[in-house]
Amino acid sequence: xxxxxKVNVMENIHAENDxxxxxxxxDMTELGIFAINVMGAPxxxxxxxxKQIIKNLKGLKPYVIEGDIESDIDTVDLxxxxxxxxxINTFGACHLDAPLIHNAVRNIQFKEKGVLFIENIGNLVCxxxxxxxEHIRMLIVSVTDGSDKPYKYPLAFEKADVIILxxxxxxxxxxxxxxFFMKGVRALNGDVPVFxxxxxxxxxxxxxxxxxxxxxxx
Length: 218
Ligand SMILES: Nc1nc2c(ncn2[C@@H]2O[C@H](COP(=O)(O)OP(=O)(O)OP(=O)(O)O)[C@@H](O)[C@H]2O)c(=O)[nH]1
Ligand SMILES: [Mg+2]
Known about the structure:
Blueprint: H1 9-31, E1 33-39, H2 46-55, E2 61-68, H3 73-79, E3 84-89, H4 98-106, E4 114-119, E5 136-142, H5 149-152, H6 154-158, E6 162-166, H7 178-188, E7 194-196, H8 205-216
Parallel strand pairs: 1-4, 1-5, 2-3, 2-4, 5-6, 6-7
Helix pairs in contact: 1-4, 2-8
The structure holds guanosine-5'-triphosphate and magnesium ion.
């Protein structure tokens, strides 16, 4: 029998990623940049929500990194509003990782202190597994996703520092069971703040922006 050296590849990948994430986090903290990892399934309103939060930030400087498998549609949209936005395309990978963010932030000129929103790839699974150097994780979900998502995709809910429940303007038209949803959230993440918003009407974003301002220390 030959000796077999067992290597846990995933453990090594995570250790290397976490190490770089720590550097990113330190660099951002030093620059006075509060980094938010924005996660959620495709189309639940991540970009719409960012636009509404930024509108309510009141003087706190926003920066955005847009993560997409392909295209720069969201970046073009945000730049047209005068928001400093930078694009990362993964060309297949279903999540952003710390090396990608490390590389991106080295090329960004942070002219002043502020908040860096990093819109992760639209996916409720993979992004939750990788730290990218963020200070907090913001999970955006939509009432159109169905109220069972905390039960089916627990990691994203468990690791969230704040949850934004979007598209509440559509509540009257669908069968979203808010009590069942909240029961699932609370079982995973006892005291995570949950904000109900509508990216369409702008409802609820003043409270979200104020929460971010306080969290960021500004
Ligand atoms: N009715 C309603 N529609 C919304 C709301 N928020 C976003 N939308 C719509 O939902 C669609 C997707 O919104 P996006 O902000 O592009 O979603 P996203 O999560 O950034 O999408 P990806 O980046 O492609 O994953 C758009 O047509 C938005 O206008 C909302 O609160 N209510
Ligand atoms: Mg988007």
